[in-house]
Amino acid sequence: MSKELLGALDTLESEKGIKKEVVIDALEAALVSAYKRNYGQAQNVEVDFDQVKGNIHVYAVKEVVEDVFDSRLEVSLQDALAINKAYEIGDDIRFEVTPKNFGRIAAQTAKQVIMQRVREAERGIIYDEYSQYENEIVTGEVERQDNRFVYVSLGKVEAVMGRSDQLPGETYRIHDKIKVYVSKVENATKGPQVFVSRTAPDLLKRLFEQEVPEIFDGIVEIVSIAREAGDRAKVAVRSNNPNVDPVGTCVGPKGQRVQTIVNELHGENMDIVEWTDDTAVFIANALNPAEVLDVIFDPENERGCTVVVPDYQLSLAIGKRGQNARLAAKLTGFKIDIKSETEASDIMEANPENVAQAETGNEAPVDDETTDSEVSDDVDSDVADAEATSEADEPTSADDAE
Prior knowledge:
Elements: H1 2-16, H2 20-39, E1 45-49, E2 56-65, E3 74-76, H3 77-83, E4 92-96, H4 102-131, E5 137-145, E6 149-153, E7 158-162, E8 177-188, E9 191-197, H5 201-211, H6 213-217, E10 220-228, E11 232-239, H7 246-251, H8 256-264, E12 269-274, H9 279-286, E13 294-297, E14 304-309, H10 314-318, H11 323-332, E15 335-340, H12 341-350, H13 353-361, H14 384-388, H15 398-401
């Protein structure tokens, strides 16, 4: 057994990267427990593993005392001096108590310890490998599905995708290849646990980085994303090079780049708008494809504004079930109240003091400009005011209008 054990330890160190000393320490601790469990001994014991020959010895450790009260833990000074005249009270003496049949127990214990260390090492390797993919896109294969999760094989580990991370209406079949976003990697007791998503906004960002080299290189930057997974998304982009059109770059020749992303997400509509540090212009861009006549900021709420649109485009600006306005609010970080031109005029006539506020609230014309700034992603998506002001019978989809 000794030669086999030494060979196994050498193999572990060379193939699995598990240091021999670590396994030996764990083995000695496990053998102490095995000895006490199998031989019903309560004394202090130590196990010594000979790393040269592979032999295992068990020693009972006893303290030298004047008067012995527990022979399992203590030895008299007189007996200690008989062994060696250098012993003094308080010294520890080791007596070998290795049972004759302890080799069988040692072999079983060694096997268990080695297997446990191998499992721990493999889990550590897998965790280290997949933790590097956190917040990145990987391609996996659908293995199975139940009422709670879709299980996706990523090679050495099986990732889980919860219901909230699954695209609405998307069907997952066994052996389907899908791109998923690694949202979290945990080192659980049963091994590494990887969570993936198809609905995370950052999935969209990573897809654009894959399809648009200018985004990957930093020439074009994604400033913010508002997404209702499986239905529609808005992406605000800006260019760090005045000679590069950020929207046209993301759309690609004949729309090929954005169409690739749409196909990957099974038809999720994309609105790509230009970001600018002129907040009024950015809000107008975010409500694309609706035409915006004016943006009036609320003097009592720095993150609130009223947007005026032509009467015939009120439904288009709000969007089906308020989706266009809701996504624009998420994208810009503003609470947007949409009013028709007629309704805005009536309000101004009834409250003349609002005219001055409107003029000071939006001095800049609604044109496209690109500068370097930042927009908060902290969004108030409440568009109840926008929906309440609509006088249309049934809002039409912004996508239908396009």
